[in-house]
Amino acid sequence: MKLLDVKAVLDRESDIQQTDPELEILKGLDDEGTHYAILSHRWGAEVSYKEMTGLMKMAERKRDEVRQRAGYQKIIKSCKQAMKDGYEWLWIDTCCIDKRSSSELSEAINSMYRWYQNAQVCYAYLNDVSESTFPTKQDDNKFNKSNGWPEWFVRGWTLQELIAPKQVKFFNKDWVHIGDKQRFAPTLERTTGIPRGVLMTGLAGKRLSVAQIMSWAAERKTTRVEDRAYSLMGLFGVNMPMLYGEGKKAFQRLQLEIIREFTDQSIFAWNPRMPRTGSVLAEDPSDFRGCGDIERVEPDKFVYRLREEYTRWGYSNKSSRRDIDRLAALRDAVEFQQFTVSNAGIQVLLLVVPSCDSPSHFRAILACTHGQGLIAIDLVSFGRSFARTSIDSLLPATYPDLQTVHLIHHQDANETRRELVLDDHYTSYHGFTRRGTYPREFTRNTVTLSSLAEDLIVIVYANSGARSCFAVGLGYYFGQGWVHVEYDGRSATQEENWTDFGRTAYHRMWRARAKHAQSIPKRQGLYSGEFGNRFVRHAHLPRSIWAARVVWGRWEEDDFKVMVDVVECPGCCDGQCRTTTTSHDRYGRAMPGLMTTVSRSYSLELDEQLAWTDKCSGQRIAVSHVMYPHVYPELHIHSWVIMVITSGEILYALEIYLRICRPLALISRTNQLMAPQSPAYLVEALEY
Which tens digit of pLDDT belongs to each residue from 217-242? Predict the structure, then answer.
């Protein structure tokens, strides 16, 4: 490691004009045989390795600018403290690593935990603390961006910098010593969730679960998403190459490295805020939020716990007791203590309970506890592999049985992603706007759903003025796409929290995803490819004059679009979601709007152009295509709707609407009205 020569740095600073430009201030030394201090801090305006080593060769103006930075003053103050404490060498991550060298950066990150562990003392600089006493109480006013504590306590890299060193001294922004790790261990335990014993003596000799260590990082943040994984390598004693740009894949790689080193099933015991189906690995350390009390269970104790808890899963007869007793072989099962990672998945021996309700769903009992009970996770079979999922309740089909399973840990090669276009701009005509999407965001109007067994995304729409909102769910369940609408049933006068409503709607739809998928109409009839290929989901919004409507087509179509609309609906329906089937002109192109079937419609000839019309109660535009008009004698010249179905005629429809439908008096009785022999199919849209 490269260490700062404390005396050389301070001598250079004291006589900057006379210092030899070739003076070396960094030297490569062995961390195990050198006594040195180390700095832990929150980054700001820092000084790089290149600037620190080339300071004397800079132009005077540039050199003065570097020396005035807060980061440079932090280096000088650290060196003064190190000299005061009797240390000749100091390590600071900002200026002791040449980040221009990828190999040097990778070596430093992989060695950093050891470097902090071997340091004689760590100086923790709290740049947002001005008091001369250590903060022992949460203060949301003073530290409103960091959960009521100094920002140092919520950063990703400072987690290992708190645990690894034997001695940690805390300094405020003026470099006044305000306490140390040993003295304030109870406060630090409450602040960080790290057990006091770990703070006092480190990780050595502690039988901690993977989930427990991960939980300490659940609320921490890093500037680069990859650093959420890289900053945890030292805590688990694993190494891997740095690949900045890989995003969240870094955390996946970290978990796989941990699995190769440890046979700890608690790594599968994460609990996301939003249920999802997919990889058995967590997406982010935040998935381990609330896992601080999880303990790993050894095979012999696991069998003992099974005997204790068999009644909790409904196995109360003697036969079931014998079935569980035979699992005593787990004590000696080598497979139970091994994980094998391959492209096919993570091969592991698990205790599995099949579901009575679905042959594809299972519950796996893990060798770890949370409180008094063993932890179980839900799995869904996907061919020969198993993915993580979430089941509200599972009725066991048989007693638990040992199975060797392959758990999916990456995007499956056979997975397909269903992309659809969301057209929701019509909602704005009644003041509704898109307020949020859960559990993930999507780009513009393209929504991607995974076909890996199950997926769901929820979009929330709200009208702030009327305090009314609804949520549209787009889901995929074992090859069947589905659509559902949820509305907020609370009082319209109550202030709404859209985030809470979105999460609640997501959980409700997820729990009922099988029912929603089954409710989607199926293709029927000889001409199902031409007729009945559009569906409408209609839900009246309580205490309002509006209804939410969602229109979609066949999921197997390549050009798949979902339309979300809000229409006036003054008490005409009971509020329950219902689905209707309709179709478009078998000779025309797909309809761009919402559909309803009418028994009689008319056509209007104007300027030698023909368009379908129909009576309506409000101002609407409809689109359709006219092929075979027939004369109909009855005249209706009020409240007309213009119909044009091909997309190329939409602008023409708008033109006619502006010329005729608004100034109704301009329509002359001499215009020829026509009607078809068979029913036509209307497409309703909102007023432009």
Answer: 999 999 999 999 999 999 999 999 99
